[in-house]
Each structure stands twice: as C-alpha cells, then as structure tokens.
Design brief:
The protein is α/β, with parallel strands linked by helices. The protein has helices at 7-10, 16-29, 48-59, 72-86, 100-112, 127-135, 155-161, 184-194, 254-267, 273-284, 288-309, 345-354, 380-395, and strands at residues 35-36, 95-98, 118-123, 139-144, 166-172, 201-205, 230-235, 248-251, 324-325, 336-337, 340-341, 358-359, 361-362, 372-375. 40% of the residues lie in helices and 14% in strands. Bound molecules: 4'-deoxy-4'-aminopyridoxal-5'-phosphate (PMP) and glutamic acid.
C-alpha cells in the first residue's frame, strides 16, 4: 500500500512557475526547441569574485555545520548593507539567513500565523505566498489590482480588507509577477493606514530591490511609523545571479528573529557554509555587477514591451522593475485554433507552449486569471524570437 499523504500537503498547490519550467525542460529533452520565459531567474553567470570566495571557503575547510541563523560575519554584512543601501537599522542578531528568500519567507509566515488568522496579499502575487499561508493554516485574503491601476492597490482597498483577524500583510515591490514599483509617496499612503493597526506585521519582500529602473528604491522598513514591525525579506538570488546558491534572509524584530531561528534549528539547520561565504563576498565586494545586470534587464524590458505592443490584443503596461511582463490577454479568450478552444489564460499559456514553443506562466497562478507572465531574463536574441513566436501563435487564433 502506498503511504497516505497528509491533508496539509494534499491541499498545497504545485508551484506553477517551477512546474512550467520543468515542463519546458522536458519538451526540450524530447527535442522540441522551446524558449523558456516561465521561470524568473537571471541568465547571467554568478560574478567571478563571488565564485572565488566560494572556492576559498572550500579550501579553508568551511565544511562544518553553520550556526542556525547564519555566520555572524554574513549577518553583519547584511546589517551593514541594510543600513548603507536602505537606511534601515537591523542589528546582526535580528537577521536570520535561510535557504533562499523562499525559506526565509516561509519561516516568518510559520512563526507569526495562527490557524484562522488572515493574511493580506495584494494580487497579482507571487505563486508561493498563498501556499505558505495555507501551510500555516492561515487564510490568504487577496487585495486585487489590475493593469488599469498599474497593478497597485490603493490605501482605501488596504483599509477595507483589514479585519480583526488580520495578522500579516505580505507586500512585494518591485513586484513579481507585474514588475510594478510603488513610489515613496504611494508607500507612505499605505503606511498611513498600517500605522493605525499595530497588530499587523508587515512582510516586505524586497528581493527585486536592485532590478528597478526608477532609480529610486524605498524600503517599507524605512518608515518610522511601522519600522518596529516590518520584516524585510531579501537575498542574493536575483541581484547577484545566484539562484542556485540558495541564500536569502529575513531581518525582523528580535523576538521574531529568535522564533524563526528556533524553527530553522529543528527543520533545516543553518544554510550551506560555502554559499554563505559566497553571499558575504557579494555584499562586501564591488556592486558594479549589479548595475551592469540591471542595465541589461532594462534594455530587454524595452525590447519586450516594444514587441508586445505590436501584437494586437495584448494589453501591456511598462513594468518599472523585476524582469517580468504581465500582459492582459482577454482579447484571445474564446478564440480557437482548429478544434482547440482557448477558454482561459491557462489554456492560452498551454497553447503558447505547445503551438508556439514558448513557455510562459498563466496569470491564474498569481491570482490574476486573464493575464500571462513572461520572464525577460534571457538574451535579446531569445527574446526577439520568443516574441515573434508568440505573435505568430496568437495570430492563428480566430
Ligand atoms: N520572493 C519573490 C517575489 C520571488 O520572485 C522569489 C523567486 N525566486 C523569491 C521570493 C524567492 O527567492 P529565492 O528563494 O531564490 O531567494
Ligand atoms: N521566483 C521565481 C519565479 O517566480 C522562481 C521560481 C519560484 O521559486 O517560484 O519564477
């Protein structure tokens, strides 16, 4: 007899970003020439000075269990980075390093949410937020936005969504999947609302901080009205092209950092010694690589936006950060290719994969059916070809 799976895990959805990417790799291994715009991951190599630090860590025998919240030297480097770049104060003791921002986030959700607590999530939102809340037996409450408001929620919407059971807000700017970046003024208006509700802890996912074309980044933790209850999430995956190294962190009020550390101590222990040493080099070394990658992403953003705008029926905004385009595709719903009928954006994403050989992700996975997400973190040539294929596949739908 096969083992029965717990209800907790049965209720969990598969990560659609990872699933689409795996499906695209599988087709590729079968010989189909698929362009993968599904997973959000920089295509750049990790910068040389960071790799060298990892090699040195191996040679210097950093091979033992690491402290559960991370090496103190890395936590100090993160604390200094937060002060230098974001103007926020978190002591090294308030920083807990985990296996990617993903674990850091999940740790915080598990350490704050009780069964039945409500967690506000502005949508479209990254696929994992709702599922993490589900794991903690909380209730994810969507605060929806659409392309007409540049995918930003208003202070009124935020306030209307707050109830006595609201425990947490999970906020993300620059946003995955929309690329929207809130201005300081817009954030201030949300902060004015949050200031009235001291029970709400704010998770600010700032993983795309450096992939931002506005020239300005404001951390949620920099508002004194709420600073004592902002948990900042960040990591090296996106800014330093280090997705596989799996280093992220939370910077949290001390009691919460201790709770997160307790959880991690029973669950995964400290993150990889080698990867931590590499991350330390990322934070203490030259930041030129970050600016170079941002420049490339901005050029690619311009390219995909221009090409997407030439496709009739696609509605696109100009994303100011991250590396995603989130076009509205409802003009294509209800159309057909032969006897294949496209009813939903999920059908459309599957059609683009199977007919156009371009992997994208259905907006429904981010709580926003009627859209699809394209990651433009790939070469200009691949992007040009992918957009040409998408245009051709869409033109066949009648
Ligand atoms: N937050 C957001 C919004 C993301 O898009 C991702 C995707 N990787 C993560 C967190 C997790 O990043 P990682 O675990 O690679 O540090
Ligand atoms: N965050 C990336 C994405 O949205 C990586 C995949 C994942 O972890 O979801 O595609």
């Amino acid at each position: 007899m096969v083992p029965e799976i717990s209800q907790r895990i049965q209720a969990l959805a598969v990560s659609q970003t990872l699933a689409m990417s795996q499906r695209s790799s599988q087709l590729r291994s079968e010989g189909v020439d698929v362009i993968n715009l599904s997973v959000g991951e920089p295509d750049f190599m990790t910068p040389a000075h960071i790799k060298e630090a990892a090699v040195k860590a191996i040679e210097d025998n950093f091979s033992f269990y690491t402290p559960v919240p991370g090496y103190m030297s890395l936590r100090k480097a993160v604390s200094e980075k937060l002060c230098r770049e974001n103007g926020v104060e978190y002591a090294p003791e308030q920083i807990v390093v985990g296996n990617g921002a993903k674990q850091a986030l999940c740790n915080v959700v598990l350490a704050t949410v009780n069964s039945g607590d409500e967690v506000l999530i502005p949508t479209p939102a990254w696929v994992s937020y709702f599922e993490m809340v589900k794991l903690a037996e909380g209730i994810g409450v969507a605060v929806p936005s659409g392309i007409d408001t540049d995918f930003k929620i208003t202070p009124e919407q935020l306030e209307n969504a707050i109830t006595e059971r609201t425990r947490l807000l999970i906020f993300c700017s620059p946003s995955n999947p929309t690329g929207s970046v809130y201005t300081r003024d817009e954030l201030q208006k949300l902060v004015d609302v949050l200031a009235k509700y001291p029970r709400i802890t704010i998770i600010s996912d700032e993983i795309y901080e450096h992939i931002n074309y506005t020239g300005q980044f404001t951390s949620m933790a920099s508002f004194p009205e709420i600073a004592d209850r902002v948990v900042l999430i960040n990591g090296v995956s996106k800014a330093y092209a280090m997705t596989g190294w799996r280093i992220g962190y939370c910077a949290a009020p001390l009691n919460l950092a201790k709770a997160v550390s307790k959880l991690q101590g029973q669950y995964t222990s400290g993150a990889s010694s080698i990867a931590q040493k590499a991350a330390e080099a990322a934070y203490t070394g030259s930041q030129e690589c970050v600016a170079e990658m941002r420049k490339a992403f901005e050029r690619r953003r311009d390219l995909v936006v221009r090409m997407a705008r030439e496709i009739p029926g696609l509605k696109v905004n100009v994303p100011m950060g991250a590396f995603y385009l989130f076009p509205e595709v409802s003009a294509y719903l209800g159309k057909s290719f032969g006897d294949r009928r496209i009813e939903t954006s999920a059908d459309l994403a599957m059609y683009l994969l199977e007919e156009g050989h371009v992997a994208t992700v259905d907006g429904g996975a981010f709580g926003a059916p009627g859209y699809i997400r394209l990651s433009y973190a790939t070469s200009d040539e691949q992007l040009t070809e992918a957009m040409r294929r998408i245009a051709a596949a869409l033109a066949k739908l009648v």
